[in-house]
């Protein structure tokens, strides 16, 4: 899903072209691969770099979503966002 095979070359989608959920799924795979430890140093560095790009892009998407929610709430007369309180934390 994340890679297009063109001949023998595997091309990964650019992080900005992935949905938030696709980025998160790919990050989970990268972490699992790196934790498993069977990756060469060069491949580990490439995966780490890809992971950083995915994280930065995902953070940007989350910030945009938060801004949209803030605008919508302001339109409804709600002043600020409140942190979500998860029971048990």
TrEMBL record:
TM region positions: none
Leader peptide range in chain numbering: none
A Pfam match: Exonuc_VII_S
Keyword Hydrolase annotated: yes
Principal localisation: cytoplasm
InterPro entries: Exonuc_VII_S, Exonuc_VII_ssu_sf
GO molecular function, one term: exodeoxyribonuclease VII activity
Keywords: Cytoplasm, Exonuclease, Hydrolase, Nuclease
Enzyme class: hydrolase
Catalytic activity: Exonucleolytic cleavage in either 5'- to 3'- or 3'- to 5'-direction to yield nucleoside 5'-phosphates
Record flagged with keyword Hydrolase: yes
Function: Bidirectionally degrades single-stranded DNA into large acid-insoluble oligonucleotides, which are then degraded further into small acid-soluble oligonucleotides.
Oligomeric and partner information: Heterooligomer composed of large and small subunits.
Protein name: Exodeoxyribonuclease 7 small subunit
Organism expressing this protein natively: Shewanella piezotolerans (strain WP3 / JCM 13877)
Lineage: Bacteria, Pseudomonadati, Pseudomonadota, Gammaproteobacteria, Alteromonadales
């Amino acid at each position: 899903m994340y890679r297009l095979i063109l001949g023998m070359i595997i091309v990964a989608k650019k992080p900005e072209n992935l949905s938030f959920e696709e980025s998160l799924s790919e990050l989970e795979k990268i972490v699992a691969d790196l934790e498993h430890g069977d990756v060469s140093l060069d491949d580990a560095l490439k995966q780490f770099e890809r992971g950083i790009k995915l994280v930065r892009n995902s953070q940007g998407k989350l910030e945009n979503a938060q801004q949209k929610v803030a605008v919508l709430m302001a339109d409804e007369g709600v002043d600020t966002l409140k942190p979500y309180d998860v029971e048990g934390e």
